[in-house]
Amino acid sequence: MSLMKIIETAEKQHKLEKDEIVALLENSDCDQAITIAADRVRKQYVGDEVHLRGLIEFSNICRQNCFYCGLRAENGAVKRYRLETDEILELARKAKGYGYKTLVLQSGEDTSFTVQKLTDIISRIKKLDMAITLSIGEKSREEYCAYKEAGADRYLLRIETTDSQLYQKLHPHMSLENRKQCLYTLKELGYEVGTGCLVGLPGQTLESLADDILFFQELDTDMIGLGPFIPHQSTPLKNEVGGTFAMAIKVMAIVRLLLPDSNIPATTAMETLNSKGRLIALQSGANVVMPNVTEGDYRKMYELYPGKICVNDTPAHCRSCITGKISSIGRTVSQEYGFRKRKVTTNN
Ligand code: SAH
Ligand code: SF4
C-alpha cells in the first residue's frame, strides 16, 4: 500500500497494522500529510478547544534510577526539594485563581509522601472543585485505590517503551510487566488513564515505536503524552544522541489518527527542541497543554532533562503566554474539566 493510502486508512478507520505504522515512521516523504490528517481528526473528534492542566512539580526526590532521567536517585548533582502540604495547597489555590480546571500533581517516587499525607492533600484540593491528575509513579493497588477514593480523577504513567529488553536496560530494578500491571489496575479502579513513550531512546527501533502505538490503542488510554528523549548530562545516557522533534511529532500525529477521541498534550519537551514546538504539536493532533504552576527555584530543580523551557517565568506569565499562543492559531481555551468524551468504541 502506498504511504498516502495508509494515511487515508488511518484517518478513516483509525486502525493500522504494525508494518503500516513502521512504513510511516521510516519514510519522511509524507510527514506533512500525516500531521495534516491528524489535525483534521483532532478537529473532528475533540474540536478546537484546548484543555489547560496546571502542573505542580511537588518533589524532585526519587527512589528510582531510570537511566534517562535527571531526577534519578543516583544523580548526586541535583539539589533536592519537596514541598510542604501547605505550599502545595497554596499553589493549587493560585492555579484555581488562574482559571485552571485541572491540576496535575507530579513528582519523583518520593516515599515520604505517605498514603495519609497524599490523601489529605488530594481531598483538600478537591474542595477547590478541580479535577486532579496524579503522576507519581508506580504504587500498590491499595495506594492507587486510596488516592481514587480521596478524589483523584486521572493518572499519568508512561510505559516509556514496550520493548522489554530496552525497558530492562533502562530501568534497573523495575519491570515492564509491573508497569503494565499498574496501568491495568488504574483503569480497573476507574481512573482516566494516560500513558506514553519516549521517542529516540538509544537502541529503540521503529518496530518498537510501532508496538508502543499499538499498545496505547490496545489499552485504549484516555490520554497519551509523548516527547523526545533529551539526554541529561548527569545520567548514564549523557553521550547519546536523543530523539528528534520531527519524529516525536510524527509519532504523536499517528497516535491521534489511531485514538481519535483521546486527550493528547503538546509536551514541554517538544518545545525544548523547537521554540514553536507546542504550537506545532497543537496543529499536528494535540489538544492539551500543561502549563507549569510551580514557583521560583523549584522549576529549575525539577530537571528531568536539560533545557526545560520557562524556568524563570512565573505561573501568571505562563497562563497568559499560553492563552495568547492558543488564540494566535485560532483555537480557544476550554472552560470545562476536560475529561475524555468518548466518540468511538474500542478499535481492536
Ligand atoms: N516519576 C514519575 C513522574 C515524573 S517523570 C514517573 O516516572 O512516572 C515524568 C516523565 O518525564 C517520565 O515519564 C519520562 O517519560 C519523562 N522524562 C524523564 N527523563 C526524560 C528525558 N531525559 N527526556 C525526556 N523526557 C524525560
Ligand atoms: Fe524517578 Fe520518574 Fe525520573 Fe524514573 S522518570 S527516575 S521514576 S522521576
Automatic annotation (TrEMBL):
InterPro entries: Aldolase_TIM, BATS_dom, Elp3/MiaA/NifB-like_rSAM, FeFe-hyd_HydE_rSAM, HydE/PylB-like, rSAM, rSAM_sf. Residues 48-261 form the Radical SAM core domain. Keywords: 4Fe-4S, Iron, Iron-sulfur, Metal-binding, Oxidoreductase, S-adenosyl-L-methionine. Its EC number is 1.8.-.-. Coiled coil: none annotated. GO terms for biological process: sulfur compound biosynthetic process; water-soluble vitamin biosynthetic process. Pfam families: Radical_SAM (PF04055). Its cofactor is [2Fe-2S] cluster; [4Fe-4S] cluster. The keyword S-adenosyl-L-methionine applies. GO terms for molecular function: 4 iron, 4 sulfur cluster binding; metal ion binding; oxidoreductase activity; transferase activity. It is an enzyme of class 1 (oxidoreductase). This is [FeFe] hydrogenase maturase subunit HydE. It comes from bioreactor metagenome. The lineage of its organism: unclassified sequences, metagenomes, ecological metagenomes.
